[in-house]
Amino acid sequence: MKLRTILLVLALLAFLSFSSGGYLYYSSLKKFAFNKAEVEANYKAESIKNRVFSFLNENLKLVKALSGLKEL
Q1: Residue 16, CA distances (Å) to 21, 30, 42 in order
Q2: From the centroid of its chain, how far is CA 43?
Q3: Are residues 52 and 58 in contact, defined by beta-carbon separation less than 8 angstroms?
Q4: In whole angstroms, what is the distance from residue 29 CA to residue 22 CA?
Q5: What gap in Å lies between CA 70 and CA 2, rounded to an integer?
Q6: Per-residue confidence at 69, pLDDT binned at 50, 70, 90?
Q7: 3-state DSSP helix/strand/coil percent for the chain, to nearest 5?
Q8: What pTM does this model have?
């Protein structure tokens, strides 16, 4: 084989290996980012749920206290 052909084949193999490696890196990074966003969204939703539940409990306590008053 000629030297030019060998270099062309090696360059193509290098390009293919870098391309496949880059794609695998990109796909794993994308999957990680989506998983991290999902975990963070779940945490924020749980936090909001707890705050709303606490707010409703405090208001229910006030309503129960006010309902015990004879003036009302």
Answers
A1: 8, 21, 39
A2: 10
A3: no
A4: 10
A5: 104
A6: confident
A7: 90, 0, 10
A8: 0.65
Determine the 3-state secondary structure of 12 from DSSP.
helix
Q: What is the 3-state secondary structure (H, E, C) of 43-58?
A: HHHHHHHHHHHHHHHH
What is the chain's length? 72
In tens, the pLDDT along 20-37 reads 999 999 999 999 999 999
* Rounded Cα distance, 8 and 2, in Å: 10
One-letter identity of residue 28 = S
Question: Which tokens sit at 7?
Answer: 């270099």
Distance, in Å, from the CA atom of 50 to the CA atom of 40, rounded to the nearest integer, reads 15
